[in-house]
Write a structure and sequence with these properties.
Blueprint (H helix, E strand, L loop, with lengths): L2 H12 L4 E4 L2 H12 L3 E3 L9 E5 L1 H12 L15
């Protein structure tokens, strides 16, 4: 999953209407990949090449909740053991 796809899912999850509008042609293909994975659902049959209107599915909502539940990484420094 690409960072752009994660942003799309977060956008749809946090949207008041529960949907996302993707107009950048480079991102439309990635949005179609999310529809194939069952995380976004096309709305109004808007399967055009330059624009997509999609809503988050239950699978998409669960994925976002899982990402949000992960703890933040913490930087930890360890000294390497000396070779004997």
């Amino acid at each position: 999953m690409t960072p752009i796809q994660i942003i799309m899912l977060l956008d749809a999850y946090m949207s008041q209407t529960g949907d996302v509008h993707v107009q950048n042609p480079a991102h439309v293909e990635q949005a179609f990949d999310l529809t194939e994975d069952g995380m976004l659902l096309l709305v109004d049959g808007s399967k055009e090449e330059k624009y997509i209107h999609a809503a988050s599915t239950e699978k998409g909502h669960c994925f976002v909740k899982h990402i949000c539940s992960l703890p933040y990484p913490v930087q930890k420094w360890d000294m390497p053991e000396k070779a004997s």
